[in-house]
Amino acid sequence: MNVFAGCFTEDGEKALQNDCSQLPGTLWTVPLDITSQKSVDNCFAFVSQILKERESKLWALVNNAGFLAVYGPMDWIGIEEYEQSVGVNLLGAIRMTKKFTQLIKTSKGRIVTMISASGRLHGFYTAPYVAAKFGLEGYVDNLRLEMKPFGIKVSIIEPGAFKTTLMNPDAMIRRVESVWSKLSEDIRDEYGNDFKDNYIQSFNAGTSLVANRNIDIVTDAYIHALCAKHPKARYICGWDAKYIFIPMSFMPSTWQDFLLQLMMNITSGSKLPAALMNNNTLSINNNPPHCPPAPC
């Protein structure tokens, strides 16, 4: 298989070239920043030139770039964090798709987009990431409808938690500490160090509990989406996505909230902000919410 790989850094380019040096097929690496239209245009020109020289067509576009914007409660998050998450996770994929769709039309090929189970279900302290992924789900669903008359098959990959660099516990700690250090004293006092530490513990405990080590599940989904005669519209990857998060996405909102709170309690126990604790507000640990009634 011949592959064009867009790489954000020179180190990434070199590492990929080394890793793939013994594999069959040809790999072309090209510098790419999907948040920059100029970079996307340069990538398109590079790919188009190679295709012209080889009298070939582009079979597929894989939107794989992602940025895990997990920082904490909304009070901690500035507009710049939302802009960064939306810029990479949503607009970057749209920018690439708009640019390369004309090439895919000539081959009647595939467009495959990595999204996440977070594009189907919300969660604690993940607003920038979830907002971008929900938006991308909607965009690709529309894309699938509109590309069908052109013979292009569009697939979404929705993984749960996998043990990749995006879910690295040390990286998570650095992200939270970086944001915490920039907060005003009033916000830090309102939440308190115990809340921050509990949040980090809860995230890492949850990741350790459900994150899958078998990345082949995701790569197999890619291969099927690219090569199968009848690819799926959606590939749900990982036991947590398949049996917990995606099924929860079909439940009433009150049930979703209840189960998400329950999972938070299981991983490390719910911790209220310091200001609420100091005001003698009843904690969720001591007074667990009642299961909501079944919908009418």
TrEMBL record:
<keyword id="KW-0560">Oxidoreductase</keyword>
<dbReference type="InterPro" id="IPR002347">
    <property type="entry name" value="SDR_fam"/>
</dbReference>
<dbReference type="InterPro" id="IPR036291">
    <property type="entry name" value="NAD(P)-bd_dom_sf"/>
</dbReference>
<dbReference type="Pfam" id="PF00106">
    <property type="entry name" value="adh_short"/>
</dbReference>
<dbReference type="GO" id="GO:0016491">
    <property type="term" value="F:oxidoreductase activity"/>
</dbReference>
<dbReference type="GO" id="GO:0008202">
    <property type="term" value="P:steroid metabolic process"/>
</dbReference>
<protein>
    <submittedName>
        <fullName>Uncharacterized protein</fullName>
    </submittedName>
</protein>
<dbReference type="InterPro" id="IPR020904">
    <property type="entry name" value="Sc_DH/Rdtase_CS"/>
</dbReference>
